[in-house]
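testing teh design pipeline on a random one, pls ignore if ur not involved
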C-alpha cells in the first residue's frame, strides 16, 4: 500500500529505518528487513533510486545472527526479479552469490534459509546473464540434490523445480550437467509417485526441462507428451517405456540405475517404495543379454527382504 500510495515519502522512511538493521534487538532487525523485502517487490524503489541502497542492505544482512533476518534478506533479493527485473541482469553475479551463500548456510537446522534461497533463485533465473549462472551451475546442482528426498515437501518441491530451471543453462556445460541429470533421474522418476501433488508437478516440470539434454529423442518426447501438468499418468506403463528407452540409449547405466533404485526400497513413502522394484524389473526386462550379465544379483536378492 505504501509503495502504491506513499511513494514520495519512502526515501525518508527508508533512510530512518536503515539504522535499525544494526539494532541489538532481533525484532527490530526482523521488522525492517521484512519491510524492505516487501518493498523490493515494487518498481517504486527503482523509480526513487532506492534499489541499490536497499539491495546492499539486504546483502549485508546475510551474516545476521538471527536466522529469520537472513531468510527475509534473501526473500528481498529474490523479489527484485518481480519489482525491478531489468536490474537483475546488471546485478546478477552479486544476487546469485547471495543465493548460493544462503543454500550453504551452516546455522539453518530446518533449512528455512536454504528454502528461501532456492525459491528466490528460481525467480531470478529468468533475468540473469547466462555467463553469471554457468560458473555456479555445478555447485548449485550438487548442493540442492539432497533436498529431493527431504521429509519437508516444500523443500522437495523447491529443489526439484530449481533443478528443472537450471537445466536451461546446461548448454556449453552439457557433459557436466548431463552427469547431474543422470544422478537425479531415478529420484525424479520415482517422485512422480510422491504423496504431495506439488512435488509431482515439480518432477514433471524438471523432467520436461531435462529431456532435451539427455541425447535421446524418444525419452525427450515421452517427457514432453506424458508429463504435461494437465495430463494424468499411468505410471507403470510410463516407466516401462522409459526403461525401454534408457536401456536402448544407455545400457551401460544399468547397474547405476539399479543401485539408486535399491536405496528407495527403504523409502518411508509406500508408493515410492513400491515403484522402485517395478522400475528395476522393467530395466532388466529391456536390457540386452550382454549387459544383463553385469547385474550384481546379491543386492537385488537382499533387497527383497528389505521390502518385506
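output:
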Amino acid at each position: 500500500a505504501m509503495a502504491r500510495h506513499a511513494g514520495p515519502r519512502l526515501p525518508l522512511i527508508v533512510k530512518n529505518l536503515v539504522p535499525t538493521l544494526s539494532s541489538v534487538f532481533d525484532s527490530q532487525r526482523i521488522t525492517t528487513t521484512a519491510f524492505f523485502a516487501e518493498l523490493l517487490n515494487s518498481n517504486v524503489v527503482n523509480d526513487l533510486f532506492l534499489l541499490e541502497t536497499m539491495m546492499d542492505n539486504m546483502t549485508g544482512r546475510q551474516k545476521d545472527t538471527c536466522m529469520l533476518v537472513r531468510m527475509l534478506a534473501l526473500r528481498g533479493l529474490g523479489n527484485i526479479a518481480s519489482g525491478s527485473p531489468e536490474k537483475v541482469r546488471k546485478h546478477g553475479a552479486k544476487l546469485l552469490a547471495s543465493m548460493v551463500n544462503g543454500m550453504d548456510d551452516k546455522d539453518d537446522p530446518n533449512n528455512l534459509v536454504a528454502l528461501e534461497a532456492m525459491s528466490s533463485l528460481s525467480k531470478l533465473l529468468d533475468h540473469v546473464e547466462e555467463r553469471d549462472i554457468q560458473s555456479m551451475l555445478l555447485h548449485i546442482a550438487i548442493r540442492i540434490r539432497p533436498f529431493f528426498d527431504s521429509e519437508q515437501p516444500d523443500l522437495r518441491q523447491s529443489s526439484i523445480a530449481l533443478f528443472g530451471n537450471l537445466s536451461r543453462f546446461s548448454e556449453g556445460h552439457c557433459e557436466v550437467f548431463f552427469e547431474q541429470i543422470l544422478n537425479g533421474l531415478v529420484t525424479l522418476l520415482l517422485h512422480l509417485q510422491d504423496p504431495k501433488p506439488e512435488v509431482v508437478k515439480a518432477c514433471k516440470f524438471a523432467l520436461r526441462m531435462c529431456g532435451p539434454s539427455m541425447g535421446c529423442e524418444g525419452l525427450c518426447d515421452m517427457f514432453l507428451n506424458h508429463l504435461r501438468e494437465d495430463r494424468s499418468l499411468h505410471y507403470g506403463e510410463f516407466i516401462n517405456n522409459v526403461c525401454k528407452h534408457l536401456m536402448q540409449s544407455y545400457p551401460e547405466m544399468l547397474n547405476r540405475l539399479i543401485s539408486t533404485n535399491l536405496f528407495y526400497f527403504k523409502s518411508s513413502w509406500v508408493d515410492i517404495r513400491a515403484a522402485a522394484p517395478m522400475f528395476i524389473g522393467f530395466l532388466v526386462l529391456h536390457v540386452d543379454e550382454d549387459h544383463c550379465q553385469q547385474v550384481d544379483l546379491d543386492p537385488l536378492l537382499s533387497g527383497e527382504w528389505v521390502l518385506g
